[in-house]
Amino acid sequence: MNGRGVRVALAEAARDLADVSATPRLDAELLMAHALGFTREAMLLNHLDAPAPDAFAPLLDRRLAHEPIAYITGTRAFWTIELAVGPGVLVPRADSETLIEAAIDHFGGRAPARILDLGTGPGTLLLAALDHWPRARGLGVDASAQALDYARRNALGLGMADRVDFRLGDWAAGVDGTFDLILANPPYIGTHEPLPREVRDHEPGAALFAGEDGLDDYRVIVPQLAPLLAPGGAAILEIGATQADAVSELLVAAGFAVALRRDLAGHARALIAS
Asked: What distance in Å separates the CA atoms of residue 116 and residue 175, rounded to the nearest whole number?
């Protein structure tokens, strides 16, 4: 960075990223920490006066071209775990942690023994749940072999490979047995809904779009749930902020009692079916 220190390079990068990101300073810090090979916390505490590494500039250029931070660094924090991610998989969002919170509240002092994650992606919801309940076992299903490669890598890295299976499949088709907890974050974006460039141009469309009204995959998943849900269990589905009524109707028609869970921003984010 032409002799500039980390502190100055961060300030300049945050300014440049202001038109690209809602969190320009955080983005700059994450990229710089990755370039330095330290955690963000260690960088902020001990390395702000170090020379900015040459590796930072190309990383910044990628972010300025709207590539997701998680693809650039190769990792994303979610709940209590760190996940490897990359092109071809849906980037875990903090909003999805709402499903884990809802599951913990549902079970209270109990623990689910078997967990099913439909559309597991890089293992996001399933591995977070298994981290919270260390005696639980899980099955993750996804239609993307690329996503499942990441999921298996993440399970291995987190020491959970002996507690989880991953399967290529079409939602719950062919899944046998019952589960205490079923999690799902299906595609729920309408085909013509606008999206930020970093999502539209980089993340896999198959994990985002679900027909004209964004409900196509719920229409497949909801009828599959009842035979798979153990007594006292819960199926928790992520939804778009405007979809609570429509997806609730599908669940009620399938015989479920339904409760709504909002995310930290107050948006409708998850439906708990029991």
From this structure: 9
